[in-house]
Specification:
The chain is an alpha/beta fold. Helix content is 41%, strand content 22%. Strand 14 and strand 15 form a beta hairpin. The two termini are 31 Å apart.
Amino acid sequence: MAGIYIHIPFCKQACHYCDFHFSTAKTYTAQMVNALVVEMIMRKNELENETIETIYFGGGTPSILSVEQIRNLLDTVYHHYQVIENPEITLEANPDDLSEDKILQLSQTKINRLSIGIQSFFEEDLQLMNRAHNLQEAENCLQIATKYFKNITLDLIYGMPNMSVERWQQNIQKALDFNIPHISCYALTVEPKTALQKLIQKGTISEPSDELAQQHFQVLKNTLESKGFVHYELSNFGKEGFFSVNNSNYWKGKKYLGIGPSAHSFNGHERSWNVSNNQLYMKGIQQNQLPSEKEILTKTDLYNESVMTGLRTMWGVSLPQMEIQLGKKYSDYLRKQSEKFIEQGFLILQDEVLKTTSKGLFLTDGISSDLFMIN
């Protein structure tokens, strides 16, 4: 089983916190879609022995595309790849793109899961982040989308400067009021060279507080778990039957093919990534050449990745499985390195599976880096 990720590198405007690859120049959208189609055909043999169980439209803002363009891309996948009977097919979307007509049309395609970038239900927050939508659009799109799609996830951002715990609780409750079965929440982080970093440097916006983010995280976890959500990955909460198959497969190390500029691929032992430049990408595709780079992952690379991804999930890291895949040297190293974190109550070793405790969950990324093996 494998997945296909399709990167749509266009946005209406740049959110202040975003460092993903995108362009606000949408004049060549049709040419880009044609290039994506050609790349999928060029690379069809890379997954010839795998069946496709997930198709994920990410970005950028995939909902910028017309429904006909989305159908074109999906038809290409189905024509050139072996797709299971009921795959998970996700479209990332922004509220301002989701009119009732657009939602209705999308529901008539093979798309069966919407990932809606709400980020906040407060106008002040949306303006601070420079989001393209407003509160009314956010509420309207959810009211309509829930009529046509059962499988919906929405994104929220916590740890924002001046966001009180009360306001964060109201954000969570608003999502719950729409009976959404999956919620992804991310701490506001200041990425290099983003507008957010510049605004903080100028003193226009306060720097995010780790202490406040940790408070918000605990409120989030307690609230959603009390409502029947399973905290199956650090940033993801889902009702039973609504976990993201696409994302779960990433964390479990399954193969995936990344289509489009900046998209990454993984075949089990090698990682590759396309150039993060729209014009260079399309020019390369026109010349029947894929502008990409690749690296063969060492056992140490695979060890570090399995620790980093595994500890973020409720499934943890299986030491016996690591020994089978990488060798006893690596499972022994992880066992030894994790001892101090187990003593401190941040990790637990249960049935030979290493997992993060509730106490250590917010610190997962830092703990993982301490467990890494350096060549």
